[in-house]
Amino acid sequence: MASPIMAPTSSIFGEKMESGLISRFSPSISAHRCRKQALNRVLAVMAPAQPQRSPATTGSVKHAMTMTEKILARASERPQLAPGENVWVNVDVLMTHDICGPGTIGIFKREFGQNAKVWDREKIVIIPDHYIFTSDERANRNVDILRDFYMEQNIKYYYDIKDLGNFRANPDYKGVCHIALAQEGHCRPSEVLLGTDSHTCNAGAFGQFATGIGNTDAGFVMGTGKILLKIPPTMRFILDGEMPKYLLAKDLILQIIGEITVSGATYKSMEFVGSTVESLNMEERMTLCNMVIEAGGKNGVVPVDKTTLKYLEDKTTLTFEPVYSDDCARFIQEYKFDVSKLEPLVAKPHSPGNRALARECKDVKIDRVYIGSCTGGKTEDFLAAAKVFLASGKKVKVPTFLVPATQKVWMDIYGLPVPGSGGKTCSQIFEEAGCEVPASPSCAACMGGPLDTYARINERQVCVSTTNRNFPGRMGHKEGQIYLASPYTAAASALTGYVTDPREFLL
Amino acid sequence: MAPDFFHYRRMRLAFFSPNHPPLFSDDAPPSFLVTMSMAAAAAAAAPAVAARASKTSIYSQETRSPLSNPNLRFPTRPSFPKYPSFSRCAPEPLFLSTSPRAAVAASSPEPLFLSTSPRAAVAASSPSPTTFHGPCYVLGDNIDTDQIIPAEHLTLVPSKPDEHRKLGSFALSGLPSAAYTVPFVPSGAASTPFPVVIAGANFGCGSSREHAPVALGAAGVLAVVAEHYARIFFRNSVSTGEMFPLESEETGIWKECTTGDIVTVDLDGIRLINHTTGKEYRLKPIGDVGPVIEAGGIFAYARKTGMIASASTA
């Protein structure tokens, strides 16, 4: 009780001291002043301790938080977080693959010791997927490095492949990491998932924080289970309106990237809400979140709802608690789209932001079509392509390469009946249309790869692709021209030999 | 931290002697590098200059973060590429050194030193560099990771020393040849003569592959000055300590610079000086990642702040 009274006085003294007046006082006065200060100090020591008051009990203003902020607050064990803060965050899942896994492992061992153990053998998921079906020795060696590490550390989740000649002979092998993560139940609401791949943001469709990191950060996480993150502000994208039947999620995200540019979301989180988003199935939501990185985004999120829960029903027994953006949460920017008015799009060479209407590119002659990758090689994507081929009934005019993302997708292509086809499977429809035989599941030519990679562009050719990037040399040849498109648009283009709006076949 | 090739950086010094033909004459290849034998001969012939060379070089062989300890780099071949875009101002001398002392002394540029003699690589104490100086390589907007390091080279594992070096030899090999006529790494060489890269917006966009900043660092890049960066690339540059990712205050400076212009990146003064055009540009302060870079990367920072224990030895 004494200290609050004394405090102002001592501060007055303090001010006078600082202004140098003390030197002008006579010794007796300064002695008196010093004694008074000593008195202050004694009184301060005798003052009763103030009880600690946590912010909640005082009812101090709690700022509303967005989904991303809430997820990271929970993961960093903080009640409150604001954009711009740098915090240490607990990681729930770390994913790596054959391209970056060996480098990550090298760093882990260098920094923590050759005999170090990973922070949690059940929270690391190792998925070989990029350069698998190739004769490149280093690529094959990299898968061996992953296997050695898995055995040494007794990693719970390692989706191995040994027989490169027949992917089906490898029961553990999955395929493209981001789709495998979803299909195997590693994506769960409100968790923090990091991967050594930029398209890790794909998992944001499950209402979690998911982003890509490099080898060094991953090596750090491997040893500690933590990462230093800067909290991103959130951009909100409100997508409303009935989804036209010639449009897919790929068109929506190309629309957004074209709108905000390839660096429009740098260091920001992208939140997708609205009636259209709610009407999308999980694979479509993944397509949306998958290309967040193409806008420079740190992560993407879609709120959890019945669709999410239904998808997760048979995939995981772990519990989770979804979080949602507060009503008065602050978003750095908001964009509204009336989806019913949008048209099929492409991203022209050489940028995912080089947006154009598909119908305006109808004079662009193409040499090949590629349907595959984490962005456009899921079951729903192949069902969509099959729909267009079915509607046309004709054969494709250019080589059309089909690369299912995972073993499960491959099986769906051969097993699932296509609605409205009288019981035909995708594979049958593809065969009748003259497409190539669906290939072994992997990333394949999405990012070029070793020279013998399936469907790699090795000449100066024009390709319409359901993949995610079209920078120079992306799929192999530096002068390859890649038009990014939805599966509908890709299939339509295959049928005409030119970039084609799918309404030619779907209306 | 255990000594590791990973943090072993070398800096090339060019050796200049008045007895040599001017480095920028039209007769000789306009190269600022000379052969090893010439350098050795010149070293013998010009002891005073050699003395200056050893004084101005920082040759710590200690393996720490490259940001605090660059080392002498030796050219790997006796013949050197041509740089027709180099300034022809006669004998405008150049030096490539990251010694702060030399940088301070170089308000008037010092002679060009190329020393490949191991004698020149005397280990001297080396404070953190505050300047990076040399010819720059200029890039435009949205240079993505596929251009920085094409995907076919991603089978190389950056934590293996020989593969780390190989990555450097492929740095920026994905650039379209039509737009970028001067190769960043000369054909057949393993490293670049350009220690500074000047770029436009969104540098390093695309993949999270750490091979991208690693390739640049392994090639010999000391600093990049871009308008802004893609976040994963920026993060990887900071975590690895492979090169300094700096941002310019103004936009479009890449349009005013040409590959081969001699520049100084001054960290203390937070500016980029283009000696060839005479222009100066303000840089942004390094910001939040300053402590991480100063510590030497994410691991060093985590140790420093007590987040993880000191490095255990293998």
Automatic annotation (TrEMBL), chain A:
GO molecular-function terms, A-Z: 3-isopropylmalate dehydratase activity; 4 iron, 4 sulfur cluster binding; metal ion binding
Gene3D superfamilies: Aconitase, domain 3 (3.30.499.10)
Keyword Oxidoreductase: no
Entry's Gene Ontology BP terms: L-leucine biosynthetic process
CDD domains: IPMI
UniProt keyword Nucleotide-binding, yes or no: no
SUPFAM superfamilies, alphabetized: Aconitase iron-sulfur domain
NCBIfam families linked to this entry: hacA_fam, PRK00402.1
Protein's name in the database: 3-isopropylmalate dehydratase large subunit, chloroplastic-like
From TrEMBL, chain B:
Protein name: 3-isopropylmalate dehydratase
Segments forming domain Aconitase A/isopropylmalate dehydratase small subunit swivel: 196-248
Pathway the protein contributes to: Amino-acid biosynthesis; L-leucine biosynthesis; L-leucine from 3-methyl-2-oxobutanoate: step 2/4
Family under the similarity heading: Belongs to the LeuD family.
Underlying gene: LOC103704661
Top class in the EC scheme: lyase
E.C. code: 4.2.1.33
GO molecular function: 3-isopropylmalate dehydratase activity
Keyword presence, NADP: no
Any one GO CC term of the record: chloroplast stroma
InterPro entries, alphabetized: Aconitase/3IPM_dehydase_swvl, AconitaseA/IPMdHydase_ssu_swvl, IPMI_Swivel, LeuD
Organism: Phoenix dactylifera (Date palm)
Pfam families per the UniProt record, alphabetical: Aconitase_C
